[in-house]
Description:
Layout: H1 8-12, H2 14-17, E1 32-40, E2 44-51, E3 56-63, H3 68-81, E4 90-95, E5 102-107, H4 114-117, H5 123-142, E6 145-146, E7 155-158, E8 163-166, E9 173-174, H6 193-196, H7 205-220, H8 231-242, H9 245-253, H10 288-295, H11 308-312, H12 318-335
Antiparallel strand pairs: 1-2, 2-3, 3-5, 4-5, 6-9, 7-8
Amino acid sequence: MSRVHADANAILGKSWYDYDNFRIDWSPPDRYEIIRRLGGGKYSEVFEGLDTVNSDRCVIKVLKPVAAKKIKREIKVLRNLTGGPNVIALLDVVRDTSGRYHSLVMEYVENVDWKRLFPVLTEGDIKHYIFQLLCALSHVHAHGVMHRDVKPANIMIDYQRRKLRLIDWGLAEFYHVNVDYHIRVGSRYYKAPELLVGYKRYDYSLDMWSVGCMFASMVFRKEHFFRGSDNDDQLLKILKTLGTEKFDLYLKTYNIHFETEIDNLLVNHPKQPWSRFITAENRHLASTDAMDFLDKLLRYDHAERLTAQEAEAHPFFNTVRLEAISIKGDLVNDSGFASENSAA
């Protein structure tokens, strides 16, 4: 079981996590206008939209025909988590008169594309945005939810406003002890080892591996740190970095029967020191604290990874926490009381 928040959903109760019996009150789509397409994928098309009632920009996620259960799950998760720190806000759910097209209306974020962003991030930027992501995941995990698809494309960063939002909850799921979960989740470059070896009793730590992959991309100035051509090659990229000794121990610890016909996956690989990835271009970002933080996230054994809350407390973020405390203090001095989200 997860070493944190294992009983979160049991405590919150069935009405919190039971999306099968969740009733959705759909709004008509009349008040929203589509302005332009922002992107799309296997399950949805995403557009910038306009709320004609208040002239606010919004994002309209038009869901492709999928199982009603999946639609209910995404909306239930978003309804539960909206208002949490750095979680994208669900504003409305709409359905056309035919009942065929379902859409989610969410807050708009002036996002900077990852390809443009990662090469220019400063150490201060990295600390700020990873800490904001951890704040989101700390809240999400404490409320019994695994995101299961943390990656740059699902993290909207408004660089001018220093704002981050975690989006796309289509693969999110409520965590329960001793439940086998589907392993076909996540995106290849950010898939945790447990998914790649078919271990189904994973938990929130799945998301923390993905955070580690993103952090490595930021610090080492690589668009994607582990970049496999398929799932087998993805695992090979990980083995060549973290080594096979700890991998074999991981399989043995959790009694995972991993079979493969790929010869390279059966070869012994030594663990590489993180210093191997330090170059003249990224040396200023690869501090001792940064390398220690990375090392404590990218672990085969999911129980060894930092939890979101532990990650927030890592010395790498000392200055970020001090800034947050300072801002909170200023708010108290100016207004006589502190905003509930002032440190978020």
